Amino acid sequence: MTLTMTQEPLLQVRDLRIAFRIDKHNTFEALKGISFDVPATGTVALVGESGSGKSVSSLAVMGLLPAQTTVIDPASSIRFAGRELLGLPLREQRALCGKDIAMIFQEPMSSLNPVFTVGFQIGEVLRLHMGMTKRAARARTLELLHEVGIPDPQRKIDAYPSQMSGGQQQRVMIAMAIACEPRLLIADEPTTALDVTIQKQIMDLIARLQRERRMAVLFITHDLGLVGEIADRVIVMRHGEVREEGAAGQVFGAPADAYTKALLHCRPSLDARPLRLPVIDDYLGGRILPDQMPDQVQRARGTTPDDQPVLVVNNLAKSFWLREGLFGKREFKAVNDVSFTLGRGKTLGVVGESGSGKTTVGLTLLRLHRASGGSALFEGRDLLAMSDREYQAYKRRIQIIFQNPYASLNPRFTVGQILLEPMRIHGIGADEMERTALARQLLGRVGLPDAAYGRYPHEFSGGQRQRIAIARCLTMRPEILVCDESVSALDVSVQAQVLNLLQDLQDEYGMSYIFISHDLSVVKYISDQVMVMHHGSVVEMADSDTLYRDPQHPYTRSLLAAIPRGVL
């Protein structure tokens, strides 16, 4: 897209400084004087890790920052179409935001009201901002649902958010955002939690709407692959400051800032599998010079007939029974006839869209779901057929890292208590002193300081919490580790650190991984073999290099075609 840069920008942010009050005497400076423009019909991307100030910038534009705790420098300025937004009276602000400026939030289930139908919620926007009658608003809502690709809009208009998939919920959010034909659309991480195919559909939809409606788009993300496909200009942020700004091709083709280079090289590539992924500190700490490429020595992956099997799964099945009508019920086959062999010291990647059965396979193998059929042989014994008492001895040998480190750690326990509890239950360590020493040793092993031992989970970042979850698993010295979307919620730099840690642990202890993910670039990097699931069944399985080079099944090909390749 060619931008006419001589036109006055639609959005002008100048020297924006924002701090948040921590207590009576202290504040935290979230933005440190950032400036940028968004042209009237262009797409600008704000890129950076969590805590960089991306979302704070967008919320400031929308006027959604909490007034009681927010301190904005009087010299700061946010102008929209020549109109100053900072200090705008609340009534004028409400009239502007939602009509001329609209926002798509990251998590649709937190943004959509669960007690109202989606039709009511979209219609409410039209009635408030456009003055439409209920009948006119309903007719326009049907048009919007059709425009954003909701199937059967006549029926879906009366559905509740919980009755729609994640991708459909995000489409409803987009329909709500474009309902009043805004001049500026802010998209704050709109595809973070979505599968790669749904992600591509949403990105294509936003790009199409932007072209057809000639909107300006401010796109906020930490996924550089997406940025390369949608943005005209890129602004790289870190710690509340702009580190680099320029045309997308220039920033990604010839980045000038060491931090930008680090972000680009942290993410696994489809074309290479280095022994270790570089991390931010490698560049900013001087271990990799800014004008150098990271180590390109490749790690060999794949399986051989000589691999020693550690887990043999045959015809695994899991069904759920759903209510239908007043007394009826129907069977939903979440996993159907899944078989695979996991080699010792190897990684099996499991990919597929939401609802494909990936997570159900992992939870069933750990007996967190009761299997409906099949077997899982570990050292010749069927884990699924054991009594609870027999299985107790095997619990510590097969463990799981859950997707959400915020929900999987007890907020009332210190890190030390979190690590000691499983050791006490399984009788690991001769006494409390030995267990404490092991817990502290494991903290160092996962890259956390000894001081973390006495702190609580809320005092850590998402990446650090995931390291605590890994350390908790390691206290039991498992032989099989199920990683259920364990890096999907992390920034690319933190993701690289966790992937390096998992690889180090596999090299050192010979652990075997079942790595469940919808991020196909990460799966290729870490997996020896990949299993593709669709509607509960395995549609293809092959060594990772073979599958990515020559996929056989149409569904596999559609997944690979949807991978963002803007900067890869």
UniProtKB/TrEMBL annotation:
Q: A GO BP term, please?
A: peptide transport
Sequence ranges assigned to domain ABC transporter in this UniProt record: 11-264, 311-560
Record keywords: Isomerase included? no
- Give UniProt keywords alphabetically: ATP-binding, Cell membrane, Membrane, Nucleotide-binding, Transport
Superkingdom of the source species: Bacteria
Gene Ontology MF: a single term: ATP binding
Family membership, please give it: Belongs to the ABC transporter superfamily.
Give the matching PANTHER family: D,D-DIPEPTIDE TRANSPORT ATP-BINDING PROTEIN DDPF-RELATED, TRANSPORT ATP-BINDING PROTEIN
Query: Which protein are we looking at?
Result: ABC transporter ATP-binding protein
**Source taxonomy lineage?**
Bacteria, Pseudomonadati, Pseudomonadota, Betaproteobacteria, Burkholderiales
